[in-house]
């Protein structure tokens, strides 16, 4: 009796199918590796060609962050960001001479490091830092010359009043100034309501049972957040090759879409600002450094007293100065001196005392003279 034949053809078919699948997978792996290596070489090539470092960095996030893209700044785990230490030159948003020392303080001249200790420490926003003017033209630098005493400029572009006070609390114990000058525009009060401004995370205060509670420390390094960029841009944004290609293909309208986003967390800015005055009083009592709170103004607050926006800002500044006085702090309102200059020459006021959005050297001189007189009265002297 003959044995049944073994179904060789079927086995052979199965084996051949396996070989085909294995070969297809191998080719796919080869393609993926080849493409990956090619993209890696191109990434290295364009970075080397443009002098871009190989450190991890999201080029999209940086572009959508005002302070990462246009200002000399670095991340700070408490404040969100500070001026970049040891920065010097005109490669900044203003094309002016800007010199930052090791403590992230703006020097009063490129060749004059900030002394330690100092007589006066100034904190605030871009009006204190001196956006649009060179080192020697800021009001803290001119105050230094008027007093004949060392003045440290700890103002930071874009800061809210909350960040300015936190920076004062950090620096006063270290620098031991005779006086702390806290300058603000009313916009700084609005900024206390934000967790993110111009694409950069920041700390903020909540009001809980009538007291301030610090939130969002440390702030996220993501500038801006992934959900604001989308998954694709968040992932590919780390490739300089993709960024380079998008710019050359004219695809920046999508690649950089979104502008400088901000995220609001509450509407309690005026209450937070008022409570910050009490916090400054506690700092004064703890350290012995006398505090002077100074109200500065946008050009529209001086030239237009009736528009709703200006009325809100003028009224808000007046109320905050009242809060400071109630807390036992000395105050200075620069509005009257600036308004007198406007009344004397309405046509020429703006061009003389302001640049684009900030004060000129002459405008900063007016502020410095007012602060000098107030400090002499506060500290004694001639």
Strand arrangement, major sheet: 6-5-7-13-14
CATH fold-type name of the domain at 85-193 and 267-375: Rossmann fold
- How many separate helices? 17
User: Can you tell me the CATH superfamily of the domain at 85-193 and 267-375?
Assistant: SGNH hydrolase
User: Mean pLDDT across all residues, rounded?
Assistant: 89
Total number of strands? 14
Beginning-to-end CA distance, first to last residue: 130 Å
Helix content: 40-55%
Describe the structure in your own words.
49% of the residues lie in helices and 14% in strands. It has 382 residues and is α/β, with parallel strands linked by helices. It has a domain at 85-193 and 267-375: 3-Layer(aba) Sandwich (Rossmann fold). The chain contains 17 helices and 14 strands. The longest helix is centred in the first third of the chain and has 43 residues, at 8-50.
